[in-house]
Write a structure and sequence with these properties.
Layout lengths: L5 E3 L2 H13 L4 E6 L5 H11 L4 E6 L19 H9 L5 E3 L58 H4 L3 H16 L3 E5 L3 H13 L5 E5 L19 H12 L1
Parallel strand pairs: 1-4, 2-3, 2-5, 3-4, 5-6
Helix pairs in contact: 5-6
Amino acid sequence: MATGLEIITDKDQMRKWSRSMRAQGKTIGLVPTMGYLHEGHISLIKVAQKHTNLIVVSIYVNPGQFSPSEDLSTYPSDFQGDIDKLKVLPVDVVFHPYNLYDYRDIESESKCNDPIRDSSGSESGDTGVVSCVEDKKLGHETWVRVERLEKGMCGKSRPVFFRGVATVVTKLFNIVEPDIAVFGKKDYQQWRIIRRMVRDLDFAVHVIGSEIVRDPDGLALSSRNVRLSPKEREKVCLLLLV
């Protein structure tokens, strides 16, 4: 059971914590999430526990992996519920950054219709994600791509998704500086892309893939499952039998 779960929102503070723990000879595991935690996420934490002294869980809904037509603004969120779950687990730090990107304040680069939000996501139904920061003058223009592996499968229908995933994971690795990172094999293409990125860019991070956790009806656990109607869920489960 965690005895003193710490919530860190500042990038420099997160890096300072990691380096302080490393100076004490501790090893650090990172479990990246977008929140709305379920048993699948908890299984990742249990895997990390077997490999490191300390565990950091990041909670950040990454706008870089959503296209304009996707569900960034309505992605499921329950930050306090997530914290309540993590308090009874072997988690030392929750890294919950306010924003990991700079944006241009022009419509062609980023929609600026959403209000500025605090890191707690205080608005009703809010994810805490910043989609535009008006006082930033420099736009984010650096992206990480794993060119061959991002093609096909999910990459066909979501052309910016894996670019956004690889970029935000690179950022998390540079900020948290973990020894190991655990990803679920439910997102198999994503896991393979992160492994290849780590190999190609010489990250000093060991990437571990954790097995899929399923509900009794066979559907893999996912935060977005909460949005399925009973009929939609039934259809998905029938497809698993084909």
